User: Fold this.
Amino acid sequence: MLVLISPVILSVLLAGASSASAHVLGNTAAPSFDWNWQPWILASLALAALGYSRGLIRLHRRLERQALVGAGAIAAFYGGLAILFIALVSPLDSIAEELFWVHMIQHLLLLLVAAPLLVLGRPAIVWLWAFGRGGRRQIGHLWAASGLHRAVEVAMHPILVWAVFCGVFIFWHFPGPYQWALRDEGLHTFEHLSFLLTALMFWSIVIEPSGRRRLEDGPTMVFVVTAAILSGLPGALIALAPRPLYTAHAEGAAAWGLTLLQDQQLAGIVMWIPGGFIYLVAVAFVFVRWLQRGEPRRAGFSKRAALPLLLLCTMPFLLGGCDEDHPQNAAASDQPKRGASLIRSYGCGSCHVVPGIADANGHVGPPLTQIGRRIYIAGLLRNSPDNLVAWLRYPQRIVPGNAMPDMGMSEADARAIAAYLDTLR
Assistant:
């Protein structure tokens, strides 16, 4: 029960921290490496660290050498705070504003690294001891009299925690909600708060460093594995998607020399493989704990077996991420041929000179000779496949009043035409 108090407190303290990393669209002209010295973030992390330190001092004086909180737990808690500092204060935060895949690293640090480390630190007990005897007694009376303990028992039911943790993760990584959060600072704060709070609940059940366990080790392994599968699914879909699904990072990706699709594929790989590896570490941890409790005489064997088990479980993730023989590659080889046919169908040659296209000798627009080697499109868009598709479909939105009309072109047609134009080098 006490394990959950600290996650809730820490989540409230850090509620405003993620607002400092809310993304402001359309203002990235060059790669950014700025530190995010937001007073609210620094004050929240400092308050958490000072409260924990004060509690440790009181515990040490009162219990002397009794190892209520060991050195490993202390290191884990301060390590968790350090990860939050890296995710929210270091230049990682400013880079995450520009690159989708770095943004995913930031999310994984909150969900899969900081949260379990904080839970391992048993902060509820330590923070409680930061208060004097009278303060601890009052907190205990309030906890019992207010009925909060019953609400926590309901909220921490394993099935409910699993559903909320997986649901929150999947919801915020749909293209729509993800980009809503980018455009609204308050919503982005709520997104990061929901990540941290649900992750702390999830890892409290998996690790449970104090008090009675809500799940035995066998069901806990199922708890983690099923969450890993559902959490890895968005990453796999994002990595294998044939077209960009998240357009909000277009300018930032261009500043780093990436196309939207490349940035998206890297983000999917980050979610899929490193994220899956962390879950597998957790499964190995629970498995070893299970063996140690069930067969104490074979504890040495279980420790030696942990690494081979982890490597064996990781193989499907690593091999799955190396498969490059996707069906769309074969279809992509036919795109330039189809694009040439579409150029004739749309009548592009009435306005442009297009090499390789019969009767494409118009002089209204610029000639498209060697367009595949040009740096910019229309003098302002960096020449990338995604930007060229956007220009072909919506030229009037990008440069209102220019001579090129909106043709009502579908994305599939635009990509085929862009594939042909890319061959003009």
User: Anything to note?
Assistant: Confidence is low (pLDDT under 50) at residues 1-29, 295-310, 314-330. The first strand starts at residue 376 and ends at 377. The longest helix spans residues 260-294.
